[in-house]
Amino acid sequence: MTAPRATVTCPDCDLEETFTKLRDARLAVDRHQRETGHDPTWRLGRLDPGVERAGDAATACGRTREDCGGALTPFTERRE
Ligand SMILES: [Zn+2]
Fold first, then answer.
1. Cα(43) to centroid of ligand 1, in Å?
2. What is the pLDDT of residues 29-42, one digit of tens each?
3. What pTM did the predictor assign?
4. In sequence order, which residues have a C-beta less than 8 Å from that of residue 35 and are 6 or more positions away?
């Protein structure tokens, strides 16, 4: 599977990177913190809603509506 599994975003800049390995995502967060002093976060799942049906992934994606593909609530998106 090559679909991204983790997305790193930063509230302090426009950083948004997707990674297929959680370890890489963690490393990117760590690196960004060191390089910029920002406080990036990473979350699971950056997949099409149909693929992101695991409920746990949706709960990790509750920061902004845009990040969830424009859906009002991440919890209902998984069936649409
Ligand atoms: Zn940043």
1. 15
2. 999 999 999 999 99
3. 0.53
4. none
